[in-house]
Specification:
Largest sheet: 7 strands, parallel
Helix content: 40-55%
CATH superfamily of the largest domain: Glycogen Phosphorylase B
CATH architecture of the largest domain: 3-Layer(aba) Sandwich
Radius of gyration: 21 Å
Order of helices and strands: EHEEEEHEHEHHEHEHEHEHEHEHEHEHHH
């Protein structure tokens, strides 16, 4: 089917090569839209060592470091710069991925110029405030996010559970845009005996893996408690905890888990090899809008233990291709991990089913859905 080419402006305060779920998703969406013949104009803060010039496809703004998030920035409010740019080079539709100062100025500029706006709800900032000791801000943040997104023609959310939660909080015009996974990159065939040897593991020993930011909102204290409990309950098994990623809790976790392996940030094929070389994937986070790492772990053939929400609720059938616990039920979370480790045949079967399911969750269908939603927003009367 031939689809009219769009001129799309995309505004985000994070973008590859920065490593986080929002940046990874936007990189995939932009790549897919370009491959489908659309013209993109990216607006983002200038990154460290960024030498890219401003042109019709890229507008760089100043940014300020985001406290507690090394390498990430708030984009500077750029209302007048955006007005000048879009008066001269008007996009058909605007996608705003982040709600910071840059995103807010883009929303204001678009509304002033009558440009249709689609927004994406990528991060539960209102939940993060609790983890960083700013619980009083939760209501204010929720109100701001609702105000922000309700001024767009559509707000895209990554999971049905997220859509229900936001509807309950008064968010309007919500549409589902799921996430995909690169099933060629994240594949069990990338399992590396050499890497496992570096971890000090033989093939019949168990690598318990976690991939993600080492930060308070990821509920990593449960990861620590779960691993310690598994060690106590299964003394006959050799378990090695492997953490991929970095963040403000790294030093604390290293002190609590001196025998664990901390591999830092990994990218591309190295990241894929780390996934595939694991056996069991523990994902205790309760703050995700989606959780791309769940799909990456499933595609890599790992048995995933997670809470029944976001990506896990969408892609895991308990006992078939992973294990789910009721959100917040830490006992059930640990028991699910224990069940898989105590039953090697179930572990093997779950891992095979994980790959079979996730291998079908490619990005092309997601990009096509994104494209259709952008067209719908452009064609809808304000």
């Amino acid at each position: 089917m031939n689809v009219t080419s769009l001129h799309i402006a995309l505004v985000s305060e994070t973008f590859p090569p920065e490593v986080n779920g929002v940046a990874n998703t936007l990189g995939r969406l932009c790549q897919g839209l370009r491959e489908r013949g659309h013209r993109l104009q990216l607006v983002r803060p200038r990154q460290a060592d960024d030498t890219a010039p401003n042109d019709d496809q890229l507008l760089l703004t100043r940014g300020w470091p985001l406290p507690g998030y090394a390498g990430l920035q708030w984009g500077q409010s750029s209302l007048h710069k955006l007005l000048r740019r879009w008066q001269r080079n008007r996009p058909d539709v605007l996608y705003i991925a982040t709600e910071g100062p840059l995103g807010l100025s883009a929303l204001r500029a678009a509304r002033r110029l009558g440009i249709p706006v689609v927004s994406g709800f990528h991060t539960n900032f209102q939940q993060y405030s609790d983890h960083y000791g700013f619980g009083l801000l939760t209501r204010l943040l929720t109100g701001y996010l609702r105000w922000f997104h309700n001024r767009s023609r559509l707000t895209l959310v990554p999971s049905p559970s997220q859509r229900l939660e936001l509807q309950r909080r008064g968010f309007e015009r919500l549409e589902l845009l799921a996430r995909g996974v690169d099933g060629q990159l994240f594949h069990p065939a990338r399992r590396s005996a050499a890497l496992r040897a570096e971890w000090g593991l033989c093939e019949d020993e168990i690598a318990v893996l976690h991939v993600g930011r080492l930060a308070a909102e990821k509920n990593l204290q449960l990861l620590t408690r779960a691993f310690r409990q598994l060690q106590r309950d299964l003394p006959q098994q050799r378990l090695r905890l492997v953490l991929v990623g970095d963040g403000p809790l790294r030093a604390q976790l290293q002190a609590e888990l001196p025998e664990a392996l901390f591999c830092g940030v990994q990218r591309g094929e190295a990241l894929a090899a780390h996934y595939a070389s694991g056996d069991l994937f523990l994902f205790p986070s309760l703050s995700e809008t989606f959780g791309n790492v769940v799909l990456e772990a499933l595609a890599s053939g790992l048995a995933v233990v997670a809470f029944d929400q976001a990506a896990a609720a969408q892609h895991i059938r308990h006992g078939h291709n992973g294990a789910l616990a009721t959100p917040g039920d830490e006992v059930a979370f640990i028991e699910s991990a224990r069940w898989l480790l105590e039953d090697p045949e179930s572990l093997r079967r779950v891992r095979l089913n994980a790959r079979q399911h996730a291998g079908k969750q490619g990005w092309p269908a997601i990009v096509e859905r994104f494209e259709s939603l952008l067209h719908a927003a452009r064609d809808t009367q304000a």
